[in-house]
Design brief:
This protein is an alpha/beta fold and about 130 residues long. It is about 20% helix and about 35% strand. It is globular and about 40 Å long. Bound molecules: zinc ion.
Protein backbone atom coordinates (compact mmCIF):
# COMPACT_ATOMS: atom_id res chain seq x y z
CA UNK A 1 0.00 0.00 0.00
CA UNK A 2 1.41 3.37 -1.02
CA UNK A 3 1.96 5.69 1.94
CA UNK A 4 -0.56 8.50 1.67
CA UNK A 5 0.20 10.15 5.00
CA UNK A 6 3.04 10.32 7.48
CA UNK A 7 3.24 10.40 11.26
CA UNK A 8 6.04 11.10 13.71
CA UNK A 9 7.21 7.95 15.52
CA UNK A 10 6.73 9.43 19.04
CA UNK A 11 3.10 10.24 18.20
CA UNK A 12 2.44 6.69 17.05
CA UNK A 13 4.10 5.45 20.26
CA UNK A 14 1.94 7.81 22.35
CA UNK A 15 -1.24 6.51 20.68
CA UNK A 16 -0.21 2.95 21.49
CA UNK A 17 0.68 3.84 25.09
CA UNK A 18 -2.71 5.52 25.50
CA UNK A 19 -4.47 2.42 24.13
CA UNK A 20 -2.64 0.23 26.68
CA UNK A 21 -3.31 2.62 29.57
CA UNK A 22 -7.03 2.64 28.81
CA UNK A 23 -7.43 -1.14 28.88
CA UNK A 24 -9.89 -2.77 29.19
CA UNK A 25 -11.71 0.22 27.68
CA UNK A 26 -11.34 1.97 24.35
CA UNK A 27 -9.23 5.11 24.32
CA UNK A 28 -9.64 8.00 21.91
CA UNK A 29 -7.90 11.19 20.96
CA UNK A 30 -7.15 13.87 18.41
CA UNK A 31 -4.14 14.34 16.15
CA UNK A 32 -2.70 17.52 14.75
CA UNK A 33 -0.25 18.43 12.04
CA UNK A 34 -0.01 20.08 8.68
CA UNK A 35 -1.35 18.67 5.43
CA UNK A 36 -0.74 14.93 5.32
CA UNK A 37 1.76 14.92 8.18
CA UNK A 38 0.78 14.27 11.80
CA UNK A 39 3.06 15.67 14.49
CA UNK A 40 0.89 16.21 17.57
CA UNK A 41 -1.47 14.34 19.84
CA UNK A 42 -4.12 15.33 22.32
CA UNK A 43 -5.67 12.56 24.37
CA UNK A 44 -9.41 12.75 24.84
CA UNK A 45 -11.85 11.24 27.30
CA UNK A 46 -13.97 8.36 26.10
CA UNK A 47 -17.28 9.61 27.39
CA UNK A 48 -18.86 6.19 26.86
CA UNK A 49 -16.24 4.41 29.02
CA UNK A 50 -16.90 1.39 26.80
CA UNK A 51 -14.78 -1.47 25.53
CA UNK A 52 -16.48 -1.42 22.13
CA UNK A 53 -17.26 2.22 21.31
CA UNK A 54 -16.03 5.74 21.95
CA UNK A 55 -17.33 9.27 22.00
CA UNK A 56 -15.28 12.43 22.49
CA UNK A 57 -17.09 14.96 24.73
CA UNK A 58 -18.17 18.02 22.69
CA UNK A 59 -16.56 20.38 25.19
CA UNK A 60 -13.19 18.70 24.63
CA UNK A 61 -13.57 19.09 20.88
CA UNK A 62 -14.52 22.72 21.36
CA UNK A 63 -11.45 23.35 23.56
CA UNK A 64 -9.25 21.56 21.07
CA UNK A 65 -10.42 23.67 18.13
CA UNK A 66 -10.19 26.83 20.19
CA UNK A 67 -6.56 26.05 21.03
CA UNK A 68 -5.81 25.51 17.33
CA UNK A 69 -7.25 28.83 16.28
CA UNK A 70 -4.57 31.11 14.89
CA UNK A 71 -2.13 28.22 14.61
CA UNK A 72 -0.78 26.63 11.43
CA UNK A 73 -1.72 23.26 12.89
CA UNK A 74 -4.95 21.56 11.93
CA UNK A 75 -6.86 18.45 12.89
CA UNK A 76 -5.25 15.65 10.87
CA UNK A 77 -6.80 12.64 12.54
CA UNK A 78 -8.84 10.95 15.23
CA UNK A 79 -7.68 7.74 16.86
CA UNK A 80 -9.25 5.12 19.04
CA UNK A 81 -8.40 1.64 20.23
CA UNK A 82 -10.00 -1.77 19.80
CA UNK A 83 -9.06 -3.69 22.95
CA UNK A 84 -10.55 -7.00 21.79
CA UNK A 85 -11.16 -6.75 18.06
CA UNK A 86 -9.12 -6.25 14.92
CA UNK A 87 -8.11 -2.84 13.57
CA UNK A 88 -11.13 -2.73 11.28
CA UNK A 89 -13.74 0.02 11.67
CA UNK A 90 -17.07 -1.02 13.15
CA UNK A 91 -20.32 0.04 11.48
CA UNK A 92 -20.64 2.64 14.23
CA UNK A 93 -17.07 3.89 13.61
CA UNK A 94 -17.89 4.49 9.95
CA UNK A 95 -21.26 6.07 10.67
CA UNK A 96 -19.63 8.50 13.11
CA UNK A 97 -16.65 9.43 10.94
CA UNK A 98 -17.90 12.81 9.85
CA UNK A 99 -14.74 14.51 8.63
CA UNK A 100 -13.97 13.80 4.99
CA UNK A 101 -10.34 14.84 4.85
CA UNK A 102 -8.73 13.49 8.00
CA UNK A 103 -7.39 10.10 8.99
CA UNK A 104 -9.11 7.71 11.35
CA UNK A 105 -6.58 5.57 13.19
CA UNK A 106 -7.46 2.31 14.92
CA UNK A 107 -5.08 0.63 17.36
CA UNK A 108 -5.93 -3.01 17.88
CA UNK A 109 -4.60 -4.79 20.96
CA UNK A 110 -6.45 -8.00 20.16
CA UNK A 111 -3.50 -9.89 18.71
CA UNK A 112 -0.07 -10.80 20.02
CA UNK A 113 1.35 -7.62 18.52
CA UNK A 114 -0.49 -4.30 18.30
CA UNK A 115 -1.91 -3.52 14.87
CA UNK A 116 -2.32 0.14 13.94
CA UNK A 117 -4.22 0.99 10.79
CA UNK A 118 -5.27 4.20 9.15
CA UNK A 119 -8.49 4.91 7.22
CA UNK A 120 -9.91 7.79 5.26
CA UNK A 121 -12.95 8.50 3.17
CA UNK A 122 -12.34 7.77 -0.50
CA UNK A 123 -14.76 8.86 -3.22
CA UNK A 124 -17.47 6.46 -2.10
CA UNK A 125 -16.15 4.29 0.68
CA UNK A 126 -14.20 4.35 3.89
CA UNK A 127 -10.85 2.88 2.94
CA UNK A 128 -7.59 1.85 4.52
CA UNK A 129 -4.62 3.96 3.51
CA UNK A 130 -0.91 3.42 3.93
CA UNK A 131 1.19 5.55 6.25
CA UNK A 132 4.85 6.22 6.76
CA UNK A 133 6.39 6.53 10.22
CA UNK A 134 9.04 9.22 10.21
ZN1 LIG B 1 -13.86 1.29 16.64
Amino acid sequence: MLAAVSIDRPILAAMLAHAREALPLECCGLLTGEGNHTSGIRKATNQLASDSAFFIPPEELFEFFRALRGSVLQLTGIYHSHPRSSAVPSARDIAESHYRDICYWIISLAGREPDIRCYRWGKMTFEEIGYEVV
